[in-house]
């Protein structure tokens, strides 16, 4: 929901009025989103695998991740209204 707005602001701030430059900027923006999402997924998976060796760390790590996820979802739901 926020990404199109960010892209419009970045394009406007850069003064891009050329279609080729705008498409290049869009492509780079999407590639950046994909790379960051993939890296976050890899790092979280690695963390969970390492934490599963130690049960207490695994429970703490899972709880913090769950609380963060629920909090973020609730915040986004409240923001919509």
UniProtKB/TrEMBL annotation:
<keyword id="KW-1133">Transmembrane helix</keyword>
<keyword id="KW-0472">Membrane</keyword>
<protein>
    <submittedName>
        <fullName>High-affinity nickel-transport protein</fullName>
    </submittedName>
</protein>
<feature type="transmembrane region" description="Helical">
    <location>
        <begin position="58"/>
        <end position="78"/>
    </location>
</feature>
<keyword id="KW-0812">Transmembrane</keyword>
<feature type="transmembrane region" description="Helical">
    <location>
        <begin position="22"/>
        <end position="46"/>
    </location>
</feature>
